[in-house]
From TrEMBL:
Protein name stated in the entry: Aminotransferase-like plant mobile domain-containing protein
GO biological process per UniProt: meristem maintenance
InterPro entries xref list: AminoTfrase-like_pln_mobile, MAIN-like
A Pfam family it matches: PMD
Annotated Aminotransferase-like plant mobile domain residues: 1-85
Length: 88
């Protein structure tokens, strides 16, 4: 059976991620110098080439490749955040 082209719909996004698709968009205006501090707070580390709040997916995947077996709950949360970011 041939289906032709397939498009991801907003319903697919809700089903796969559990994220809400209605309501106002979340937009945050953060000065460039604060992005590094935010990364350090939420991920525990920040890329050296963090320009305009852009994090390279390759940096996320290389830096958070494998969760250490003896990871603390805080480290586990940081790795989970990095994983979620890499899906976007």
């Amino acid at each position: 059976m041939s289906f032709g082209e397939v498009t991801i719909t907003l319903k697919d996004v809700v089903t796969l991620t559990g994220l809400a698709i209605d309501g106002d968009a979340v937009v945050v205006d953060i000065p460039d110098e604060d992005w590094s501090a935010m990364c350090l707070r939420l991920l525990g580390r920040a890329p050296t080439d963090l320009g305009g709040g852009v994090i390279q997916i390759t940096w996320l995947r290389e830096t958070f490749d494998e969760l250490p077996l003896s990871a603390s709950p805080q480290t586990t949360e940081q790795f989970a955040r990095a994983y979620a970011l890499s899906l976007m």
